[in-house]
């Protein structure tokens, strides 16, 4: 097999592969940096919870539209995700429950509700589409959504970068200088939900958070400064999309899981050889 | 006496209806250098957070006379900051220019030079590109002082600024605090070390959930007052506070 057949031909010959490539690379570019900030805010599991929380909204959108409608499911997912974020924030600020505990209760309720709605009115295949995504069935409309979310995420992140960073590492200082920390916290959660909504169409609700958190973890193993972490997360997210699609094409495997597993593989390699990885730390510790 | 910078009128603060500090009254004069001290759990940081507007009095009132909170220079406890965050020394110090650059503005070459000068002042000339995670506790505290220098605030509030840092850094940073005092800035610092307070701080607020005494260091840090603070603390917690108790010596 020539390198052209291996790397280029699948995308040159098939429109659905080109659309899938643009969608997955685009998702990686924005979900990676969002994931880095989630990781640094020690909210990795909250990202996972949010990815499940969008399900009932998507399911209601599915019912209202009478099938797999991207717009209806996207709006539904967005509303559900933001509602869970707001409710969890409200509960953690007004009761003894911490934010992770209130997120857990709301996302589990949300997930159960979502599966119930889809199973009542849809088929198992529809449920599988929502849970695991349909990246190879992406149409032009879905591409606009993914591209729009990526552009918006990167622009908003660039604008609120400074207060977001301060809110993350020294919230007391931001409060002291009158920086409106909760506003940036909510804007950031909005970006998380937005990226999850864009991802669940392609990777499914169960794996959407993978394209956020795995590149973020990879970046932390390689870089010590935030700008470099953001670049590495975006690049490794996009690269996972490209390589994952090629592997799934040549091996005939499901695309979404293959993309996430590709990212997992990069993570495992990084865990061994990256400057903050296990081997380097051992070499350093035992002066090998 | 000139009008105070901050005045407390019978201030009480409670967490979940449990009183943490009660009925504190007094004034911070402009240009004063005041240490807030007391046993662990005396409510020192709570009082500081109330001054900074992070907590509201459950009773009484606190007035900042023509001093907006955002113009107060604040050094939180090092434990409140994520020291593993991937940010460089220079980027951290630049935050001291928040008043000029705000959340979205650019940093001019002139402002950038000021940040570099601040790093030189605190003895971290060649540390600009170092991630803060690579710094010792003392070096990190120097970074936070450089940020405070850039804030150029008239009122400076320090929460345990010399805890767990080396002797040389403590000496250098105390020199900076003295400089602020001679420049006429109002400095309020939470401190544990009574000797340090006696050596450098002309005014003291001695706290044990209630106000024990507030005035000049000589008048406040008497053995009787310190013992009273410890006993007061005992009555709250049912145990002695060795850190303060051990330091009860003749002034």
Describe this structure in words.
- The complex is a heterodimer of chains A (288) and B (251).
- Chain A is 83% helix and 0% strand.
- Chain A contains 15 helices and no strands.
- The termini of chain A are far apart.
- In chain B, strand 8 and strand 9 form a beta hairpin.
- About 2% of the residues of chain B have low confidence.
- Classes of the chains: A mainly alpha (288), B alpha/beta (251).
Average pLDDT over all residues of chain B: 88
What is the succession of H and E elements of chain A? HHHHHHHHHHHHHHH
Quote the distance from N terminus to C terminus of chain B. Answer: 27 Å
Identify low-pLDDT runs of chain B.
Answer: 238-242
Rg of chain B, alpha carbons: 18 Å
Beta-strand residue fraction of chain A:
under 5%
What would you call the shape of chain A? globular
The biggest beta sheet of chain B is recorded as:
6 strands, mixed
The secondary structure category of chain B is alpha/beta
Structural class of chain A, please?
mainly alpha
What is the H-and-E element order of chain B? EEEHEEHHHHEHEHEEHHH
Number of strands of chain B: 9
Note the total helix count of chain B.
Answer: 10
- Which descriptor suits the 3D outline of chain B? globular
What spatial order of strands do you see in the largest sheet of chain B?
5-6-7-3-8-9
Helix content of chain A: over 70%
Biggest interface: chains and residue counts?
Answer: A-B, 24 and 24 residues
Number of strands of chain A: 0
Determine Rg of chain A (CA atoms, Å): 19 Å
How far from one another are the termini of chain A?
41 Å
- Low confidence ranges of chain A: none
Sum up the structure in keywords:
heterodimer; A: 288 residues; mainly alpha; globular; B: 251 residues; alpha/beta; six-stranded mixed β-sheet; three-stranded antiparallel β-sheet; 10 helices
What can be said about this structure in brief?
The complex is a heterodimer of chains A (288) and B (251). Chain A has 288 residues and is an all-alpha fold.
């Amino acid at each position: 097999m020539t390198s052209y057949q291996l790397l280029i031909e699948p995308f040159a010959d098939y429109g659905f592969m080109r659309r899938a490539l643009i969608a997955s690379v685009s998702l990686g570019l924005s979900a990676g940096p969002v994931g880095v900030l989630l990781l640094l805010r020690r909210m990795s599991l909250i990202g996972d919870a949010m990815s499940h929380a969008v399900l009932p909204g998507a399911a209601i959108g599915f019912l209202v539209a009478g099938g797999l409608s991207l717009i209806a499911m996207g709006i539904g997912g967005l509303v559900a995700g933001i509602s869970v974020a707001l409710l969890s924030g409200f509960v953690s600020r007004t009761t003894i429950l911490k934010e992770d505990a209130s997120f857990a209760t709301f996302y589990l309720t949300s997930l159960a509700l979502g599966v119930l709605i889809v199973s009542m009115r849809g088929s198992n295949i529809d449920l599988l589409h929502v849970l695991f995504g349909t990246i190879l069935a992406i149409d032009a409309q879905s591409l606009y959504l993914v591209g729009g979310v990526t552009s918006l995420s990167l622009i908003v992140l660039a604008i609120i970068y400074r207060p977001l960073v301060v809110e993350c590492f020294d919230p007391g200082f931001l409060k002291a200088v009158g920086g409106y920390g909760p506003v940036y916290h909510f804007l950031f959660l909005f970006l998380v939900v937005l990226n999850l909504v864009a991802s669940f169409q392609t990777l499914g609700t169960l794996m959407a958070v993978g394209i956020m958190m795995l590149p973020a973890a990879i970046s932390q193993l390689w870089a010590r400064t935030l700008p470099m972490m953001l670049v590495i997360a975006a690049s490794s997210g996009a690269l996972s999309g490209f390589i994952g699609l090629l592997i799934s094409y040549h091996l005939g495997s499901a695309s979404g899981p293959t993309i996430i597993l590709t990212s997992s593989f990069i993570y495992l390699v990084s865990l061994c050889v990256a400057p903050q990885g296990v081997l380097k730390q051992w070499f350093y510790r035992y002066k090998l | 006496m000139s009008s105070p910078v901050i005045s407390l009128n019978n201030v009480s603060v409670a967490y979940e209806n449990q009183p943490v500090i009660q009925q504190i009254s007094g004034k911070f004069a402009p240009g004063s250098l005041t240490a807030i001290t007391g046993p662990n759990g005396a409510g020192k940081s709570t009082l500081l957070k109330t001054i900074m507007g992070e907590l509201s009095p459950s009773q009484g009132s606190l007035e900042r006379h023509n001093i907006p909170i955002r113009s107060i220079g604040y050094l939180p406890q090092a434990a409140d900051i994520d020291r593993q965050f991937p940010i460089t020394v220079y980027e951290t110090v630049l935050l001291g220019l928040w008043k000029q650059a705000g959340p979205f503005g650019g940093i001019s070459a002139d402002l950038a030079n000021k940040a570099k000068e601040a790093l030189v002042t605190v003895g971290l000339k060649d540390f600009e590109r170092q991630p803060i995670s690579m710094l010792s506790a003392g070096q990190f505290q120097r970074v936070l002082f450089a940020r405070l220098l850039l804030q150029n605030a008239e009122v400076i509030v320090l929460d345990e600024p010399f805890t767990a840092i080396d002797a040389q850094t403590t000496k250098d940073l105390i020199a900076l605090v003295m400089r602020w005092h001679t420049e006429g800035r109002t400095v309020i610092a939470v401190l544990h070390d009574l000797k340090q307070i006696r050596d450098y701080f002309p005014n003291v607020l001695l706290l044990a959930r209630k106000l024990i005494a507030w005035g000049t260091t000589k008048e406040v840090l008497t053995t009787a007052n310190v013992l009273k603070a410890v006993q007061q603390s005992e009555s709250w917690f049912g145990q002695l506070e060795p850190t303060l108790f051990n330091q009860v010596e003749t002034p």
